[in-house]
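Revision sheet: structure tokens.
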Amino acid sequence: MSGRVMQSEYMHWAKTRKPVRYNLASSEVPHFRMDRWAIDPADLELDGASCYRYPPLREAIAAKCGVTPERVVMADGTSMANMLAMSALIAPGDKVAIEHPAYEPMVAAAAHLGAEVRRFTRAPPRFEIDPGTIPHGCTLIVLTNLHNPTGNLTDRETLESIHEIAERAGAHILIDEVYLDAALPAQTTAALLGDRFVCTSSLTKCYGLSGLRCGWILAAPALAERLWRLNELFGVSQAHQAERLSCIALARLDEVAAGIPALLARNRALANAFVAGRDDLEMAPMTSGITAFPRLLRGDADALDDLLRARHETSIVPGRFFGLADHFRIGIGSPAPVVEAGLERLGAALDSLT
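Predicted:
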């Protein structure tokens, strides 16, 4: 057991770094202030009780995602949803196929559960999936859509091809869809395409409601029941007042998201123009999402982040956390002045490194 993975290197790094003024390492939209609403404390049911599988929230998530409530399992954020889903689908020694580059906590979680992790490569510069490269003999295929870190959208045809592979192998496909609501054109969950898909998401990245920890898993009914029962080993139920606030947010989700598409469109244009003007960066233009993953043609991404923090009050995420050390991730979900100023400082740091 000495080699068992017991932590996420990326999450520890991300949570313990000193905050900076121009945070290009952020991967979500601005926080939404729910205190703009006149919420009656009575609406929060402040009696101290918890509610098993709280039906109103389950139904609200189902309505948002276009599925039936029996397919919804609530969880504390997407991270716990991913861990819960993997715990149900992975036995020690199972072969698990995970995309590369990948969001490190998903790789770490699979390793923690005793999986033999095999990788399939998303080829640059667009980091699309070739279903033919997915390793054979795996019980679980793991990917993100939109892709974290690049923001690439995996299209319906590719997803259907992956489902056919899983169907033949008797495998499942776990897709973290936490960025999917930032896709252009708008997309529906892959859970609607077949029962081999197990999809996770939350109100965090695209809605600025990370404090609610409102996450979920979409799965076939029998698997959903297994997930509910497994969760009784972990958390039993969620904080009920957060569930009530999540119901309120879901009922007003259009208001929560108002202005976000325009913000992201402007910031994507800023990021695309910035990279196009540099001869030391390489990146396919952003067309969707909140994150991008430029390749650094000269220099070291960790040294660049250190310089940005020390001299420019700015931050990025070094690509080593996703498996490509010559890249770095930037997030464009912050207010436009923050993104614009952060990119200017990124340019200055790149110039000084050169």
